[in-house]
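Lab notebook, design round three. We kept the backbone fixed and only want residue identities now. Task for the bench partner: fill in a sequence for the structure below.
Input structure tokens:
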């Protein structure tokens, strides 16, 4: 028996856990919801075929882990292909699991009795890398070391279309500030498309483009809580349905703004660094869930940024 609380997270849009729960039920678990908790019961899970309506990263990872020690074979159709899922499956295999089709939309998992311990070198955070690349596009040349450029192919292509000079090595990316940011339409997509977790940062970049652009989020249709805050800087952004229409302005002006989730926080920091004058971002506890000491990293690049009342 396993008992966990219903998940929290960033306060934007519905992100139901039904893919997770339905998948576990298909594997044979008895799922009940009680007083804000999820209770799962099973003697041993049984292999089955599961087809996701949407290639959910979290659900793919959870079902893969559960199926690794289930009895029989499990097939996951429309599985997520994100690098994080690829590494998870490879790590499970290192622990003794038997997973085939890694990196494709169809995973075949032959259950094993037990898994053994194993070490892992976690892949670099491609979303953090993309955030710093956005700052480099606006503020000056930045080289990111210890990254995997292939994980950022779509993002790098968009930066090049926006007029930035981007070069890569096997484990680094260098971006130079664009003379003029060109407006580039962008639509988020599951991997290998442009990640929804960099949508807010791209909107911040487009606020200073020389023209108009459209940013559409096909993954989370109402993930635009950063737009009213970016408009406080003097940006010109309007949202209709799941698309932000951005008309570039000549300059942003510092303002007091409030972060509402992890990536929105990152976009506000990037905008604040590019703005004229002083910006104060409140509720930064959001950003600490996705970035480690982001202000220190920006300070190492020469930014004038600091934290008030840091947590002990």
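Proposed sequence:
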């Amino acid at each position: 028996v396993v008992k966990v609380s219903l998940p929290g997270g960033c306060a934007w849009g519905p992100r139901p856990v039904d893919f997770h729960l339905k998948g576990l039920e298909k594997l044979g678990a008895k799922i009940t919801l009680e007083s804000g908790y999820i209770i799962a019961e099973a003697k041993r899970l049984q292999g089955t075929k599961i087809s996701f309506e949407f290639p959910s990263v979290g659900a793919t990872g959870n079902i893969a882990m559960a199926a690794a020690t289930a009895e029989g074979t499990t097939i996951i159709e429309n599985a997520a292909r994100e690098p994080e899922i690829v590494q998870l499956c490879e790590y499970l295999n290192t622990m003794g699991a038997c997973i085939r089709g890694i990196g494709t939309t169809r995973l075949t998992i032959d259950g094993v009795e037990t898994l053994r311990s194993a070490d892992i070198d976690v892949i670099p955070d491609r979303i953090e890398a993309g955030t710093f690349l956005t700052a480099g596009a606006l503020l000056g040349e930045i080289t990111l070391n210890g990254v995997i450029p292939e994980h950022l192919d779509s993002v790098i292509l968009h930066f090049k279309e926006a007029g930035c000079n981007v070069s890569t090595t096997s484990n680094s990316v260098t971006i130079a500030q664009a003379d003029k940011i060109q407006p580039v339409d962008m639509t988020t997509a599951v991997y290998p498309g442009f990640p929804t977790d960099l949508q807010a940062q791209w909107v911040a970049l487009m606020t200073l483009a020389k023209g108009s652009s459209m940013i559409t989020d096909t993954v989370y249709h109402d993930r635009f809580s950063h737009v009213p805050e970016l408009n406080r800087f003097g940006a010109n952004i309007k949202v209709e349905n799941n698309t932000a229409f951005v008309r570039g302005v000549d300059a942003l002006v510092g303002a007091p703004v409030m972060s509402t989730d992890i990536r929105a926080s990152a976009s506000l920091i990037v905008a604040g660094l590019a703005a004229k004058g002083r910006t104060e971002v409140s509720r930064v506890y959001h950003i600490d869930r996705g970035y480690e000491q982001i202000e220190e990293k920006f300070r190492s690049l020469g930014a004038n940024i600091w934290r008030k009342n840091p947590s002990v």
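Keep this in mind before ordering anything: The chain has two domains: 2-110, 126-300.
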